[in-house]
User: Which sequence fits this backbone?
């Protein structure tokens, strides 16, 4: 058993409100999910609030909880404006209130006489923390021995500028005894979720407000990603893109793994540089990954093989990592477009306009022409529009013609209107002359384009339909079994509707 226990006890909930009352409420919520909780005393807005909370904690000391007190000064990346001695005072008060652990930043330890904490009435166990919010700090193996005897564990939290930064941090933590690895930033998020699997003593997750870049909530870490249950037998899958924070693919695929009780996890990777990500594929042990903007076309150059459809389309949205490490690509966007539109329109001999000329637009254009539709391509980049039109046997439709041209369907395959830029539409109401408008964007479920179409009493098709169809096809390709379609649909729709309710009430 590690210093903090096993399983869910190694997920450390972070409680960081500004008031004593809210800190007490968040602590109670945190303890329903994990017995290990960090109390960010530096986030409390005043000494009065710190005094009030610690007095409450003394009266209401939770049984069997492992409480870790932090009062990080601004010099160490925290919010506490007081001196080193004031920080040590509050940590001593936390000990009296029942905190077994405290987090002491290296900047504070270096200011103590002889770099020693002996003689201070701190909590029984010390976690020494090294933070760098700009880059990955030097990963010196001597860090594990320099303060031996003074501290019980070491935490290294560094900003991951590249995916390889985060894998280096995980390897470093695994090489030390009682080390906590915290890759910060959105690029480091997958490694943060895999940290417990790879030997980190703790993984942090906020109950409410994030206290560091790239955090996922306590509920997501435990119930969606199941970080405490991941092990070396866990199959790891991913979605790559830029941006990626908006993606509901992790919810879609992880809901299926949970429903089927499969030891697998699906992680979001912010990928700005494909080569950086591909070098990390063996490090993370990836078995497959989804590809979204802007990598659907460029990924083809890095595949050892792909299906004939992906080669013809010139884009892939799904990659299988074979046992020998080679990459095999295919395209399930094609299936998604057909399944979404065929229910509402006889595609043979229909006239369909595709907005865009990127990877998703290419898949849509090939799917529609093969189904017998007459396709028009309208894109901001005229050269790309002409190239795609030639490839599929379509016509190029200039933007200026849309006010007079009529189509059976208009399909938006651009990112215009995607979360968080919800109020933007790629077309004006005067350019919508058709029976059906379909948007490949699924978040929000009702984009501005679809709202404009509905106002003109034009039938609409949400991108959710394509998103579900292509994702289900991916899942079945990787897992070689039928996907739990109802559970996947239910999870995605519930998340979208909850998000919309939240926006309406705010």
Assistant:
């Amino acid at each position: 058993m590690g210093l903090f226990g096993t399983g869910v006890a190694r997920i450390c909930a972070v409680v960081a409100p500004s008031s004593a009352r809210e800190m007490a409420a968040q602590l109670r919520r945190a303890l329903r999910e994990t017995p290990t909780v960090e109390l960010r005393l530096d986030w409390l807005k005043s000494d009065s609030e710190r005094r009030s909370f610690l007095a409450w904690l003394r009266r209401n000391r939770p049984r069997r909880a492992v409480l870790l007190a932090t009062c990080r000064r601004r010099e160490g990346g925290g919010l506490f404006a007081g001196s080193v001695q004031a920080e040590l005072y509050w940590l001593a008060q936390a000990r009296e209130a029942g905190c077994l652990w405290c987090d002491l930043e290296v900047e504070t330890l270096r200011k103590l006489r002889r770099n020693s904490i002996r003689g201070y009435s701190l909590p029984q166990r010390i976690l020494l923390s090294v933070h760098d919010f700009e880059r990955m700090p030097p990963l010196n193996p001597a860090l594990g021995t320099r303060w031996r005897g003074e501290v019980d564990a070491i935490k290294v939290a560094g900003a991951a500028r590249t995916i390889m930064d985060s894998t280096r941090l995980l390897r470093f933590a695994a090489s030390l005894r009682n080390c906590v690895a915290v890759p910060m930033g959105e690029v480091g998020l997958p490694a943060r979720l895999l940290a417990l699997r790879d030997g980190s003593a703790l993984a942090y997750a906020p109950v409410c407000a994030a206290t560091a870049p790239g955090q996922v909530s306590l509920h997501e870490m435990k119930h969606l990603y199941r970080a405490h249950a991941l092990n070396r037998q866990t199959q790891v899958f991913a979605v790559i893109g830029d941006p990626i924070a908006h993606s509901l693919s992790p919810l879609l695929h992880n809901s299926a793994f949970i429903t089927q009780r499969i030891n697998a996890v699906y992680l979001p990777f912010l990928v700005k540089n494909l080569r950086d990500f591909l070098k990390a594929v063996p490090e993370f042990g990836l078995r497959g990954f989804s590809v979204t903007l802007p990598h659907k076309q460029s990924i083809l150059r890095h595949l050892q093989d792909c299906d004939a459809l992906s080669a013809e389309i010139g884009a892939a949205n799904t990659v299988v990592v074979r046992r020998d490490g080679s990459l095999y690509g295919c395209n399930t966007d094609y299936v998604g477009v057909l399944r979404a539109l065929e229910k509402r329109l006889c595609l043979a001999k229909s006239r369909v306009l595709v907005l865009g000329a990127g990877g998703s637009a290419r898949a849509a254009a090939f799917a529609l022409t093969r189904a017998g539709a007459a396709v028009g391509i309208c894109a901001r980049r005229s050269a790309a529009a002409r190239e795609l039109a030639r490839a599929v046997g379509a016509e190029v439709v200039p933007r200026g013609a849309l006010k007079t041209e009529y189509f059976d369907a208009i399909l938006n395959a651009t990112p215009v209107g995607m979360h968080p830029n919800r109020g933007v539409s790629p077309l004006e109401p005067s350019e919508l002359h058709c029976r059906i408008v379909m948007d490949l964007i699924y978040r929000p479920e009702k984009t501005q384009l679809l709202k404009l179409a509905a106002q003109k009493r034009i039938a609409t098709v949400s991108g959710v339909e394509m998103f579900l169809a292509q994702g289900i096809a991916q899942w079945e390709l990787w897992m070689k079994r039928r996907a739990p379609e109802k559970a996947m649909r239910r999870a995605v729709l519930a998340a979208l509707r909850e998000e919309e309710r939240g926006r309406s009430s705010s």
Q: What stands out?
A: The mean pLDDT is 94. Residues 238-331+469-492 form a domain with the Rossmann fold fold (CATH 3.40.50.10860). The longest helix spans residues 485-505. The first strand starts at residue 11 and ends at 15.
